[in-house]
């Protein structure tokens, strides 16, 4: 019987638990910043921009604080690291963050891996990523743009199946559920759902079993060209998934906290 892996999106909560399992690094990609970026940034243990992602922090973060001085905001939201092939970051942005002490890692010699890939490797090798306390990685702006980039971002989940990577957009999150484990997914119902999906993108699944969904699977086969679970709905606060194949799990993110008036 395989071990249970627990997933909880506590990073979406205004105050996250300070336990080690919730510790995460953020990678900002080169797409519009999701509305919860300031919150994620503030609680991250490590803040990394993938190449042109630095332009987004520089240009768009001040827009979240229209009453405050843009320069003060830029000083406050300083990336620890900017890494990539450096063909999208603007020179003014590069010089600004270099002068604040951000570490810049130029890997323009590597044109075979994406900037997100490069950032994941940096975080995995970081001293903050301890054996006893592995950082989760949240990547903002990973979805809802150019399809080749989206596919590259999904591929990163498969390249590093042992690293907990969560791809985020304003509308949803996506993560890999490795077949090596059974999975318990804890939902924050005021912030997430109800729409969700289980997608066998890397390889077909002969048998997947779930609980907690409106359309549960029961030793069901899933494959592209046949059945895949899209437009499913979560019923409660706990979902379980067990499969003979790595699956993508996706759940919608609510526009507004539904517990607020
Ligand atoms: N439109 C998009 N949709 C999804 N992800 C994106 C998009 N644009 C960028 N990204 C992500 O942000 C990272 C950094 O983006 P950046 O534009 O710096 O990449 P790039 O390698 O210069 O792209 P390209 O040269 O192919 O336009 C990419 O590696 C990718 O993961
Ligand atoms: C078969 C193949 N297709 C595309 C690329 C191009 N490419 C892939 S990742 C990357 C870096 C983007 O920052 C670039 C240019 C390649 N090398 N090999």
Order of helices and strands: EEHEHHEHEHEHEEEEEEEEE
Structural class, by secondary structure, is: alpha/beta
Tell me the strand percentage band.
25-35%
Q: CATH superfamily assignment of the largest domain? A: Thiamin pyrophosphokinase, catalytic domain
Q: How far apart lie the N and C ends?
A: 45 Å
Biggest sheet overview: 10 strands, mixed
Oligomer: single chain
Give me the number of helical elements. 6
Subcellular location: Cytoplasm, Cytosol
Organism: Brassica carinata (Ethiopian mustard)
Protein name: Thiamine pyrophosphokinase
Pfam families: TPK_B1_binding, TPK_catalytic
Please characterize this protein's 3D structure.
By secondary structure, the protein is an alpha/beta fold. The protein has two domains: 20-170, Thiamin pyrophosphokinase, catalytic domain (Rossmann fold, 3-Layer(aba) Sandwich), CATH 3.40.50.10240; 171-261, Thiamin pyrophosphokinase, thiamin-binding domain (Jelly Rolls, Sandwich), CATH 2.60.120. It contains six helices and 15 strands. The protein has helices spanning 37-43, 53-60, 70-76, 91-100, 115-125, 147-159; strands spanning 4-8, 24-28, 46-50, 81-84, 103-106, 136-140, 165-168, 172-177, 182-186, 192-199, 205-211, 220-222, 229-233, 238-243, 247-253. A ten-stranded mixed sheet has the order 5-4-3-2-6-7-8-15-10-13, sandwiched between helices. Strands 1-9-14-11-12 form a five-stranded mixed sheet, with no helix packed on it. It is globular and about 55 Å long. It starts with a strand and ends in an 8-residue tail after the last strand. The mean pLDDT is 94. The structure holds adenosine-5'-triphosphate (ATP) and the ligand Cc1ncc(C[n+]2csc(CCO)c2C)c(N)n1. Adenosine-5'-triphosphate binds at residues 29-31, 50-53, 84-85, 87-88, 114-116, 142, 145-146, 149-150, 152-153.
């Amino acid at each position: 019987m395989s071990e249970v892996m627990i997933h909880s999106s506590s990073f979406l909560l205004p105050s996250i638990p300070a336990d080690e399992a919730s510790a995460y690094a953020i990678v900002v990609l080169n797409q519009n910043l999701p509305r919860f970026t300031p919150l994620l940034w503030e609680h991250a243990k490590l803040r990394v921009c993938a190449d042109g992602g630095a332009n987004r922090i520089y240009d768009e973060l001040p827009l979240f604080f229209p009453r405050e001085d843009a320069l003060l905001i830029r000083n406050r939201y300083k990336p620890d690291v900017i890494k990539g092939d450096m063909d999208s970051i603007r020179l003014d942005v590069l010089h600004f963050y270099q002068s604040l002490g951000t570490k810049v890692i130029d890997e323009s010699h590597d044109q075979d891996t994406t900037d997100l890939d490069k950032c994941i490797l940096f975080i995995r090798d970081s001293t903050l990523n301890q054996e006893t306390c592995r950082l989760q990685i949240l990547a903002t702006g990973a979805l809802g743009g150019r399809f080749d980039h989206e596919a590259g971002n999904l591929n990163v989940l498969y390249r590093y199946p042992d690293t907990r990577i969560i791809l985020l957009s304003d509308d949803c999150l996506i993560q890999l559920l490795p077949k090596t484990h059974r999975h318990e997914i804890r939902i924050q119902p005021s912030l997430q759902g109800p729409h969700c999906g289980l997608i066998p993108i890397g390889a077909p699944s002969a048998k997947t079993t779930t609980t907690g969904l409106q359309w549960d699977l029961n030793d069901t086969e899933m494959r592209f060209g046949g059945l895949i679970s899209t437009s499913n709905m979560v019923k409660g606060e706990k979902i379980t998934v067990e499969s003979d194949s790595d699956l993508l799990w996706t759940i919608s993110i609510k526009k507004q906290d539904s517990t607020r008036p």
